Amino acid sequence: MRGAIGSAGRRVPAVRPLGRMSVAALLVLAAFVVPGAVPAAAASCATTNVALNRPATASSLESSAFPASNAVDGNTGTRWSSAFSDPQWLQVDLGSVQSVCQVTLNWETAYGKAFQIQTSADGTTWTSIFSTTTGTGGTQALSVSGSGRFIRMFGTVRGTQWGYSLWEFQVFTSSGGGGGGSGAPPASFWGNVGAIPAAHNVLEFSVVNQTNGQYPDSQVFWSFGGKTMSIAQQPFIDMPANSAGRMYFFLGTPNGQYFDFIEFTVGASSINIDTTRVDRFGLKLALLLHGHDGSSQEVGESYATFQEGRAATFQRFQSSVPAEFTQLATDQAPFGIPSPGNDPAFQSGGKFANYFASYAAANGDTGDSTAQVFGCAGTLASKPQLCAGLNRHVAQLTATQQSNPANFYPAAPANYYARFWHQNAINGLQYGFPYDDFAGQSSDISVTNPQYVVVAVGW
Prior knowledge:
The chain has helices at residues 303-307, 310-320, 328-331, 357-362, 370-375, 384-392, 399-402, 416-423; strands at residues 4-5, 11-12, 56-58, 80-81, 88-107, 112-120, 127-132, 139-158, 165-173, 203-210, 220-224, 227-230, 236-239, 242-251, 259-266, 270-275, 280-281, 284-291, 296-300, 337-338, 445-448, 450-458. By secondary structure, the chain is mainly β. A hairpin with a 3-residue loop joins strand 15 and strand 16 (270-275). The radius of gyration is 22 Å and the shape is globular.
């Protein structure tokens, strides 16, 4: 289930149903993590899935329609499924010994309640680097520490009457210290999470000042539910269940021109939340979502982006995009950078109104304008793969190749605005256009039984 498209062409997150979870939902369940702490592995993991298209084998198959290779093909529409018995396993040969720091399991409805992640140098002797007996399915990004040429999910207790079934089995390796390739911040960035009070409603929101001294807490404001407060007055918000909410943030003065927002839907015992650049960039924002099970996940602008000045970010944007996109950094300066579909130059009658015309037509989209391609509007509103393919300039590739981030943005025409925000995001995940969740590239994250969210507001 995808979120609805709002009036501004934005994706509004929807509460994911229990049972058959959306493949876009990112449910992170990490065991053996001290509550209140951010897993250290997240700060040193690269973002390349080393299991992609590697040889995979399994203990059994439900049928020949669900081979082990489906779990490592980069396609979230195909899956491996086992026989309906315990135990079962799925194994991937990485080709050489690798230092593993994260494993992501994208479960179909048939998930593992009790399972281990194991590594091996020879495929015979195995070492467990993760274990749980309380798995709940969804998409689990597991912070781990271990090494081996072979890695497997070894399931011992099924969560349903069916077998074990994975849309994708992803493996990420260490890329060195200092944040590596993930762009994740140090734990101190999120403030004193141990001081976040227990929620009386669904979960607690904590807003922290990461403006590098540009604004005091008395000039960092949040606005939600008809209430606007500075974080000097109220840094915590006890969040009730609500549908398709937005929380706005302002610097300097309430309702001023320096602003941005996050989007979320809070269920009775769940949250689906994201940062977004679909309409514009206004302020640097990052989220830490923490569950009562000890799991944590992070999205938003990278730590390095938070550390630099605002003028430097604008200048880097101009330097990194082709000439057609440079004016975006001056359209609303110094207050924000609009997305290209909201820039007159790409709209009807504008200088670059036909930017996508030839490429879109060559790939089956003949009726939509360039602005509609950027905004996934018109006929593309019901064609997420095509819209994503056009924005990423991969529409001419096979379905599997279109889901591989290594292929994205190879040449013009492409959404170089979106590329910039992905390049400057934690783990490369961000909403640069409405269907950026295709192939799991958006900043949309979810968890059941959430404890708190920390929102870092930067300059």
